[in-house]
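Lab meeting, item 3. Inverse folding demo.
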């Protein structure tokens, strides 16, 4: 037993020493194994306790999730009821608004139609008045006044011519289209001024006529008396034509022509038949000699101009009102379209909210239907396959 087993570094090692060393190594190995087993057992105990704690916490969280799900479901049901009531109120409000818009639009169209009908009725009344005045003028043109009907008094004769001229003008034109005895800027007073549509210059009508020469010409029995009377007619008419041209044909105030009224158709006929030179002279002086029938015809033309101007004005007013009405209708259509888009958007939003609430309810139902199981493996609890999802939820 004391034999040398081996030599290490010049030292001899016996079998006893080798046996003792082996025994010590075995004891140390056994101690290390015991310590390792104790440590692993302690760790497994700790892990089991942690797994039990995690399972308890998971159960608490699942219960909390179930409570939150139930609360969320009740809230969603409440919201759905509120949205349903709000939607019915909104539909009722929209229906009332649309009915109000229809009623107001109908009233506006009805009032516009009444106004248009009244305007057309007024135009028809005015046309009837114009037709009656035209008939009166036609009756006046059928009358022929001779020299015997002319008063011998000069002032009365002038008043007679002025009265006939005023009667013709009053019968044919509205009161706003003429003026009598108005003083011009050159201090002259024409018998009548007629306003033409679209022109600020006025047309002058003179009713003073030198009748004495024509009376002498008509009553002359000899050629010499007739010749002397014709000279007097030419002198009086020439002076009167010159007087009218100088006084009443004013630039920028009156028209570039004037009317000289002769109160007798017979005198007017004699003037054109026997005194053609005076007629040509008056034309060159821009003075037109008119009889009652010709003055009535001229007034009728002026009446047509005034009537056309008024009808154009009325047509512009009607056209303007119709344009405004069309603008109102277009504006109403745009607003109805915007309101329709608003309601459509609100309906889409409510549908999306309902879709989201349905998805939330379905997800809650799926979570509620899950079953959690713990499977033991070698003394420890392993999480179920749904553990990663639950951790994601945490």
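The presenter then showed the designed sequence:
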């Amino acid at each position: 037993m004391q034999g040398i087993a081996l030599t290490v570094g010049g030292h001899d090692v016996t079998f006893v020493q080798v046996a003792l060393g082996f025994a010590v190594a075995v004891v140390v190995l056994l101690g290390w194994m015991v310590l390792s087993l104790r440590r692993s057992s302690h760790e497994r105990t700790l892990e089991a306790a942690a797994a039990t704690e995690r399972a308890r916490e998971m159960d608490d969280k699942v219960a909390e999730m179930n409570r939150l799900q139930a609360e969320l479901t009740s809230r969603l049901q409440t919201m759905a009821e509120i949205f349903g009531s709000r939607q019915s109120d909104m539909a009722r409000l929209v229906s009332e608004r649309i009915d109000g818009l229809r009623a107001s639009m109908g009233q506006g169209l009805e009032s516009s139609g009444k106004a248009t009908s009244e305007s057309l009725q007024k135009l028809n009344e005015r046309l009837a008045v114009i037709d009656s005045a035209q008939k009166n003028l036609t009756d006046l043109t059928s009358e022929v006044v001779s020299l015997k009907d002319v008063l011998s008094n000069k002032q009365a004769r002038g008043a007679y011519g002025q009265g006939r001229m005023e009667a013709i003008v009053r019968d044919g034109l509205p009161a706003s289209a003429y003026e009598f005895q108005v003083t011009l800027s050159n201090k002259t007073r024409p018998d009548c001024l007629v306003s033409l549509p679209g022109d600020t210059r006025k047309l002058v009508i003179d009713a003073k006529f030198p009748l004495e020469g024509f009376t002498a010409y008509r009553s002359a029995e000899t050629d010499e008396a007739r010749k002397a009377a014709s000279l007097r007619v030419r002198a009086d008419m020439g002076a009167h034509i010159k007087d009218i041209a100088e006084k009443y044909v004013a630039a920028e105030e009156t028209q570039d022509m004037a009317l000289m009224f002769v109160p007798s158709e017979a005198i007017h006929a004699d003037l054109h038949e026997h005194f053609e030179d005076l007629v040509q002279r008056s034309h060159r002086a821009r003075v037109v000699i008119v009889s009652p029938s010709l003055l009535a015809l001229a007034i009728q033309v002026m009446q047509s101009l005034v009537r056309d101007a008024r009808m154009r004005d009325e047509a512009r007013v009607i056209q303007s009102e119709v344009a405004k009405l069309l603008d109102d209708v277009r504006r109403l259509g745009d607003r109805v379209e915007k309101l329709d888009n608003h309601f459509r958007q609100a309906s889409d939003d409510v549908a999306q909210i309902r879709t989201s609430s349905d998805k939330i309810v379905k997800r809650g139902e799926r979570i509620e239907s899950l079953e959690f199981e713990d499977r033991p493996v070698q003394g420890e609890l392993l999480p179920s396959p749904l553990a990663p999802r639950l951790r994601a939820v945490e």
